[in-house]
């Protein structure tokens, strides 16, 4: 009798175990179905909503930076994320510390704006090891798994320099405003050296530049000193400014000195820059640039690709547009939001967009 009961008990236990295995398999099948649905963007919203994103910036000055931040925040918020900006005041040690803080505070993802490999590589590797995705902009980083956005700096420099050479007939005296120590600047310098070799009759009579908390104001003071050193019309034919903060300072110095025969050719574009270029009282006449809001938006999109576990390129290059005063309306002031009406290729970049990202935005 006891043997019979034991045999019956073991049989019942076996049936129950088999039933639980079936239920478990059904549950797994449902999870896998949801995941595959997520690949098309249907279930991705739940996994990707509410992401906390750190934006680590080397230098946050001027309207270009403010519009770049605006683009980052706008795109992240559309995707349900929240951005916290860590400003480093051009202090690389502080930038490295900010990166460590973002890792320790367990942000879901990290965006980096400029910086050097020496300052950031250790922190970025630490983030990757902790499965925190990283997307950088204009930082010379080569860490496996990290995507770096960069403007086509060679083309930016070439567009502005070739227009300068064309306008001055391939000869004259120029001032270069440039600063070392930034990856995009180093790439622009390579193009500048090629330009010098190509146009031997264009002479560099002065070169200066420093990235400070008051770059435009400091550049203005330095440009005023250059104008004092070269006081005669014809002493300086043109200025090449490798950054819009440099161009703004130079434009104000030249305008105040009444030397607007000296034309300025720059790089980067913001609403403030556009106002100066449109104003005939200033001599900044052209600039090669990528829409700063687009840069921020594209950077966020690639971060979300990483959130979703997708492979992303090591380097994403952003192609510039070329903005000249002649292409802009004479009867009204416009903003960069309207610039696409007058400049081909400006704004509205679709880089990094996918159907599932658009679906997530709708959620």
From TrEMBL:
| Nucleotide-binding as UniProt keyword | no
PROSITE patterns documented for this protein: PROKAR_LIPOPROTEIN
Where do the Periplasmic binding protein domain residues begin and end? Answer: 53-310
Pfam families linked to this entry: Peripla_BP_4
| Record's signal peptide | 1-25
State the CDD domains in the record. Answer: PBP1_methylthioribose_binding-like
Compartments (UniProt record): Cell envelope
**Where is this protein chiefly located?**
other
Which UniProt keywords are given for this protein, alphabetically ordered? Signal
Protein family membership: Belongs to the bacterial solute-binding protein 2 family.
Q: What is this protein called?
A: Sugar ABC transporter substrate-binding protein
Question: Which source organism?
Answer: Paenibacillus thermoaerophilus
